[in-house]
Amino acid sequence: MAIEPVLVVGSVGLDKIHVPDGTFDSVVGGSATFASVAAGQFAPVRLVGIVGQDFPDSAVHTLLQRGVDLTGLEVAAGKTFHWEGRYSDDLSSRESLVTDLNTFADFHPRIPDRFTETPYVMLGNIAPELQLEVLDQVRSPKLVVADTMNFWIDIALADLKRVLARTDILVLNEEEARMLSGQHNVVKAAKDLQAMGPQRVVVKQGEYGALLFDGDDVFSAPALPLGDVKDPTGAGDSFAGGLIGFLASRDRIDPEALRQAVVFGSVMASYCVEAVGPEHLAQVNEAMVSERYGAFRSLVDFHRD
Amino acid sequence: MAIEPVLVVGSVGLDKIHVPDGTFDSVVGGSATFASVAAGQFAPVRLVGIVGQDFPDSAVHTLLQRGVDLTGLEVAAGKTFHWEGRYSDDLSSRESLVTDLNTFADFHPRIPDRFTETPYVMLGNIAPELQLEVLDQVRSPKLVVADTMNFWIDIALADLKRVLARTDILVLNEEEARMLSGQHNVVKAAKDLQAMGPQRVVVKQGEYGALLFDGDDVFSAPALPLGDVKDPTGAGDSFAGGLIGFLASRDRIDPEALRQAVVFGSVMASYCVEAVGPEHLAQVNEAMVSERYGAFRSLVDFHRD
Predict the structure, then answer these.
(1) DSSP string spanning B7-46?
(2) B187 touches chain A (CB under 8 A)
(3) How large a percentage of chain A has pLDDT more than 70?
(4) How far is CA B280 from CA A199, B108, B230, B239, B288, in A?
(5) A225/B186 Cβ within 8 A
(6) Residue A38: which of A294, A273, A291 has the closest Cα?
(7) Which structural domain, as residue segments, surrounds residue A160?
(8) Is the pLDDT of residue A263 over 80?
(9) Is B188 in the A-facing interface, judged by CB distances under 8 Å?
(10) A255: nearest CA in chain B?
(11) Could you say which of B191, B211, B302 has the minimum Cβ distance to residue A263?
(12) How many A/B residue pairs have CB atoms within 8 Å?
């Protein structure tokens, strides 16, 4: 079984996060960070992104320890992308307080030459225009997974549709699926999204799990009911990272592998939300993944032949 | 395998329902109606409730055809309980427009003598005071399943707690679980509810499925993603009815049977929402149940040993 590498392109940030447990400053974040740390559990990862000179060595160390190749991480003059957000007491909603693009404002992803043939490509949640720039640089990838968000649906729909036409698996949350399709019903929404390009659509439903629409087939993955959630930041990125990382580790994209990949994505998301920042997720190991994969199996098991 | 009977006590009504497909008047409804029709798929049902003289013969016929014993259905002078509600265009919320108690205002459940030893008892969503009256009339049931709603949590909490102390399985929706426990986190909410009496708590999550908390064990059942939902009225009652009906049909209350019962409840709920009123649900047969049970198995299947 050949383990293939994963190219992850997205944001890398330094966040300030207000959760019920307190306020945490200079927390390493961003879509590429969480996706890389999660995917790194399963396969070698090549991260492409940009940070400023304030990006901490400790975070670089965490990523390298996780086997993430940082050749494509540009360090530019200025400060790292910064986001500040406040979660509600029950963690069910959040408000963005500050978004400073900083060095990210002029970011144009440059895929290092030796990474342009990476077979598994994860387009993290960044401007569709930048996602297209990535697609123009990679050569015949086996699988393109793309994430997006409501913001881009609002202001960059035409570019986003161009991305979708070149995407194999679209990962987005329920509200985004509704916005993008104009359909409230999730089954109808997924059908419409599939018609825009991606044969597979994964609709994330937060604490309710995720639905995978694979052609006409539907798979429902639960979320693990957790009694103690610390910080949901990065859960969606960890999910997508775990999903593509698992597929790359098996170098398989068949229906069975896809269903398992959704569960491994859920496993990584479940570890992500147990702590603030990506360090807890970076410490996840094979035994922890196995244990929680077993918990997911037991969670949905109701019929033994 | 002995099939045991189920006693269902709750409301029987004539509703007016506004859904995107139109307005439907004099639709037979009520918690006992849907629970009985669903449970009747699996086991003999004994319904205890009250209607007025306007209750249609056709509805009586539907219930009898389903094997529901109506000895305990009182026909009183006056009109049947009436509810009118309007659903939002996407069916995600509803507004109660009219609630006329009519004959239900003076209802006190009288369990016919030959039904007082019914081993499986379903307390549909009615005033906790009336649920207690039922419990005072039945003799050592094997299993008591109770449903409730936000309204009773607000105005009859003390009585509701008395019901819970005598309940084996509490079925309620997520919002109600939060209200009753004061906990937002569903895992913590369920623990608190278990401490009030019921060893098992089923938290219904609508289109996301349901969680069964059985002691320390958790089971997550998905909902079937349906492209065409007509009317959610009665879905929760159909779920609870399918659940207790299945357990009675096997006369088993072990962990495996409970998990399967939650799925059979979900099967019945999925048929319920496909049409307005209980007639479609009343036409469900064993083949249809099997087919959809298979669909649930396939929906969550991700690992074969």
Answers:
(1) EEE---EEEEEEETTEEEEEEEE-HHHHHHHHHTTTS-EE
(2) yes
(3) 99
(4) 34, 30, 11, 15, 12
(5) yes
(6) A273
(7) 6-300
(8) yes
(9) yes
(10) B302
(11) B302
(12) 88
- Exposure string (b/e) for B197-230, b if CB count within 10 Å is 16 or more? bbebbbbbbbbbbbbbbbeeebbbbbbbbeeebb
Question: Do the Cβ atoms of B219 and A92 come within 8 Å?
Answer: no
Residue B294: partners with Cβ closer than 8 Å, 6 or more residues away: none
Global confidence as pTM: 0.94
**Which member of B184, B219, B303 has the closest CB to residue A302?**
B219
Query: Which one of A89, A185, A205 has the shortest CB-CB distance to B208?
Result: A205
3-state DSSP call for residue A40? coil
Q: Beta partners for B83?
A: B15, B99
At residue B52, the 3 state secondary structure works out as coil
Who wins on pLDDT, B73 or B304? B73
Indicate the helix (H) or strand (E) that contains A250.
helix A235-250
Residue B226 touches partner A, C-beta closer than 8 Å? yes
Q: Is B139 on the interface with A (CB under 8 A)?
A: no
Residue B1 has pLDDT above 80, yes or no: no
Residue B6 near residue B114 (C-beta atoms within 8 A): no
B305 near A CB under 8 A: no
Q: Identify whether B227 is part of a domain.
A: yes
Residue B234 forms part of a structural domain: yes
Task: Report, as an integer, the average pLDDT of A52-57.
Answer: 97
Say whether A186 and B300 touch across the interface (CB within 8 A).
no
Name the minimum distance, in Å, from the CA of B157 to any CA of chain A: 24
* Cβ-based contacts of B229 with chain A (< 8 Å): 185
Q: Is the pLDDT of residue A92 over 90?
A: no
- The answer as to whether A234 is a domain residue is yes
pLDDT of residue A173: 94
* Structure tokens that stand for B260 in this block: 């399967």
| Residues in A touching B222 (Cβ below 8 Å) | 209, 220, 222, 300
Q: Which residues between 230 and 269 in chain B have a beta carbon less than 8 angstroms from any beta carbon of chain A?
A: 256, 259-260, 262-263
Q: How confident is the model at residue A304 (pLDDT cuts 50, 70, 90)?
A: confident
pLDDT at B127: 95
For chain B, the average pLDDT equals: 96
> Three-state SS for A160?
helix
* End-to-end alpha carbon distance in chain B: 30
Total domains present in chain A: 1
Closest Cα in chain A to B174: A208
State the first-to-last Cα distance of chain A, in angstroms, to the nearest integer.
30
Please give the pLDDT value at position A181.
97
- A77 assigned to some structural domain: yes
Determine whether the interchain pair B302/A89 forms a contact, defined as Cβ–Cβ distance below 8 Å: no
Which pLDDT value is given to residue B303? 83
Q: For position A115, which CATH number holds?
A: 3.40.1190.20
